[in-house]
C-alpha cells in the first residue's frame, strides 16, 4: 500500500465506511505526478471529483501533513487526466463532451438511494430506462407530482448516471434557465447561450411550470427543444402538474412535452415513507427505533424533503442537548410543525375527502343516519378531525349537531378499538390522512 492509499484508509476511519463506500473508494492515487507539496487523486467523474474536493481536500492535506510534516495542496482530478491539468482547476473535464454542468448535481441523488413504492414505481422505471437508453423511446420524459415527492431526485439520478458515462449533462431549474437567457439577451451573447444548451447530450429542467406566460423564454425553449430532439439528445422535465394543466403554456410546447411519456409521482403510502425514513437514518448514521419512525411517518405528511429535514433536526437536537431520541423527545421536537399542519385543515376538508373515498354523501355524514356505512364514515371523520385539526371534542360535537362531546368520545373509542385489531383499517386511516394533507396544501 503506497502513501496515498494509506491516507485514504486513515480518512476512512474518520468518516466511516458508508461515506467511504459512496465516494472515497473511487479515488485513485497518482503516485507518478504527486509531489510532497502537491497531491493528486483521480475520480471517475466530475461530480465525485467536485464533491470530494469540497468536502475532504482539507482533511486529506492535514493527514498528509501528519505523515510527512509538509502540508500539500490536494487536487482531485478526473480519471485519465494527468500532469497536463492546469493547477488550481482540479475538476477540469477530460473533453468537451463531459464538461462541467451548469448546476452541480448532488451525488447522493442516485437510483440506488431512491426508495421505490407503488406511488412512484412508474416514474422510477421510466427514469431508469431513459438513463440507460437516452434519446430513444421516451423523449422527452415529463415527471410531475407534488412538492417534495422525489422529482428532483429522479432528474438528478438520470444526470448522475449519464455523467458517469461521459455524457455532457446540463441540469437547471426553469428559473435559472430563464435568468441566463435574459442575461445573454441583454449582453447580446445569445450564441454562447444556445451553444451551451443545444450541444449537450442530456438536458434536465426542473420546475417547468414556471414557464407559464413567459413568452420569450417559451420561444427560446421551443427552439432548444427542437434542436436537441432532432439530434437524438435526451430531454427530461419536471413539474408540479401535467402539461395540460400549466396555464399560459403555448400549444406547440405543450404538444412537444407530451411527445414522449408522462410519469406522475403520487404521495407515498405509509410503507414507502417508513422505508424512506429508514434509508435516511442508515445513510446518515442516525438511530431511531421503529416506534419513532412510525410516528414520523404517520404525522409528518407526504413531503419527503420535510420528513428528511425532521430527521436531521431530531439528530441535531439530540446531539446539542446530549439526550437520546425517545418518542417523547420526538413529539416535543416536532409539535410546532404538527400544530401548523393542523391549523390548515378543517373538518369540512375531512368530510369532503372521506365522502369521496368511501362513497358516502357529505350530507349523510353530517346527518343522524345510522346505516352501517354512514356511521363508519362519520366515526372516521370524527377520528381524523380530532387528530388533524385543532378542534376540541365539544367543537366537533357542535359541528355534527350532537348534544355534547360524549358521542365524540364514544366514536373515538370505537375507532381506536378497530385500529388495534385491524391493520388494514389502520392503513386506510393513514391513506385518508395523507390525501387530506395533500388536498389542503393544493388549496393554499
Order of helices and strands: HHEEHEHEHEHHEHEHEHHHHHHHHHH
> What structural class do the secondary elements suggest?
alpha/beta
The averaged pLDDT comes out at 84
Helical region count?
A: 19
Taking the sheet with the most strands, its summary is:
5 strands, parallel
Annotation, overall tally of beta strands: 8
Oligomer: single chain
Approximately how much helix is present in the residues?
Answer: 55-70%
| Distance between the first and last residues' Cα | 60 Å
Shape: flat
Low-confidence spans: pLDDT under 50, at least 5 residues? 80-103
Radius of gyration: 27 Å
Strand portion, in percent? 5-15%
How do the strands of the widest beta sheet line up side by side?
5-6-7-4-8
What does this structure look like?
The protein is of the alpha/beta class and 444 residues long. The chain is 56% helix and 9% strand. The chain has a 5-stranded parallel beta sheet, sandwiched between helices. The chain has a 3-stranded mixed beta sheet with strand order 1-2-3. Helix 8 links the parallel strand 6 and strand 7. Helix 10 crosses helix 12 (304-321) and helix 12 (304-321) packs across helix 13 (327-343). The longest helix is centred in the N-terminal third of the chain and has 23 residues, at 46-68. It starts with a helix and ends with a helix. Mean pLDDT is 84; it is low at 80-103.
Secondary structure layout plus pairing:
Elements: H1 3-15, H2 17-22, E1 28-29, E2 38-43, H3 46-68, E3 73-78, H4 121-132, E4 141-145, H5 151-163, E5 169-173, H6 174-186, H7 190-198, E6 202-206, H8 215-230, E7 234-239, H9 251-257, E8 261-265, H10 270-284, H11 290-299, H12 304-321, H13 327-343, H14 347-358, H15 362-365, H16 372-388, H17 393-399, H18 406-421, H19 423-443
Parallel strand pairs: 2-3, 4-7, 4-8, 5-6, 6-7
Antiparallel strand pairs: 1-2
Helix pairs in contact: 1-3, 4-5, 10-11, 10-12, 11-13, 12-13, 14-16, 14-19, 16-18, 17-18, 18-19
Amino acid at each position: 500500500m503506497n502513501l496515498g492509499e494509506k491516507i485514504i484508509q486513515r480518512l476512512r476511519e474518520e468518516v466511516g465506511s458508508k461515506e467511504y463506500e459512496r465516494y472515497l473508494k473511487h479515488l485513485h492515487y497518482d503516485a507518478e505526478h504527486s509531489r510532497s507539496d502537491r497531491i493528486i487523486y483521480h475520480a471517475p467523474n466530475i461530480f465525485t471529483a467536485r464533491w470530494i474536493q469540497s468536502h475532504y481536500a482539507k482533511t486529506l492535506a492535514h493527514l498528509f501533513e501528519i505523515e510527512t510534516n509538509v502540508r500539500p495542496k490536494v487536487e482531485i482530478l478526473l480519471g485519465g487526466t494527468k500532469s497536463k491539468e492546469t493547477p488550481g482547476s482540479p475538476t477540469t473535464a477530460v473533453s468537451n463532451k463531459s464538461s462541467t454542468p451548469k448546476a452541480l448535481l448532488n451525488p447522493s441523488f442516485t437510483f440506488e438511494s431512491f426508495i421505490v413504492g407503488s406511488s412512484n414505481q412508474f416514474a422510477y422505471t421510466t427514469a431508469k430506462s431513459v438513463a440507460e437508453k437516452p434519446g430513444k423511446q421516451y423523449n422527452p420524459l415529463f415527471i410531475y407530482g407534488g412538492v417534495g415527492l422525489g422529482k428532483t431526485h429522479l432528474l438528478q439520478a438520470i444526470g448522475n448516471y449519464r455523467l458517469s458515462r461521459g455524457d455532457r449533462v446540463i441540469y437547471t431549474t426553469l428559473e435559472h434557465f430563464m435568468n441566463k437567457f435574459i442575461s445573454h439577451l441583454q449582453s447580446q451573447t445569445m450564441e454562447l447561450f444556445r451553444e451551451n444548451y443545444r450541444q449537450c447530450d442530456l438536458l434536465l429542467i426542473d420546475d417547468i411550470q414556471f414557464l407559464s406566460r413567459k413568452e420569450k423564454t417559451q420561444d427560446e425553449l421551443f427552439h432548444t427543444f427542437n434542436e436537441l430532439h432532432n439530434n437524438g439528445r435526451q430531454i427530461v422535465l419536471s413539474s408540479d402538474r401535467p402539461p395540460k394543466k400549466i396555464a399560459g403554456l403555448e400549444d406547440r410546447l405543450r404538444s412537444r412535452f407530451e411527445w414522449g411519456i408522462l410519469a406522475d409521482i403520487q404521495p407515498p403510502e405509509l410503507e414507502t415513507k417508513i422505508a424512506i425514513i429508514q434509508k435516511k437514518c442508515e445513510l446518515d448514521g442516525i438511530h431511531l427505533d421503529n416506534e419513532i419512525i412510525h410516528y414520523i411517518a404517520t404525522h409528518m405528511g407526504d413531503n419527503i424533503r420535510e420528513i428528511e429535514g425532521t430527521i436531521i433536526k431530531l439528530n441535531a437536537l439530540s446531539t446539542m442537548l446530549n439526550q437520546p431520541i425517545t418518542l417523547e423527545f420526538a413529539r416535543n421536537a416536532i409539535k410546532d410543525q404538527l400544530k401548523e399542519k393542523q391549523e390548515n385543515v378543517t373538518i369540512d376538508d375531512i368530510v369532503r375527502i372521506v365522502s369521496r373515498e368511501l362513497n358516502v354523501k357529505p350530507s349523510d355524514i353530517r346527518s343522524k343516519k345510522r346505516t352501517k356505512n354512514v356511521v363508519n364514515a362519520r366515526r372516521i371523520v370524527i377520528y381524523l378531525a380530532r387528530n388533524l385539526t385543532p378542534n376540541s371534542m365539544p367543537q366537533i360535537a357542535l359541528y355534527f349537531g350532537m348534544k355534547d362531546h360524549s358521542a365524540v368520545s364514544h366514536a373515538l373509542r370505537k375507532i381506536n378499538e378497530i385500529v388495534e385489531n385491524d391493520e388494514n383499517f389502520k392503513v386506510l386511516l393513514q391513506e385518508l390522512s395523507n390525501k387530506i394533507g395533500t388536498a389542503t396544501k393544493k388549496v393554499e
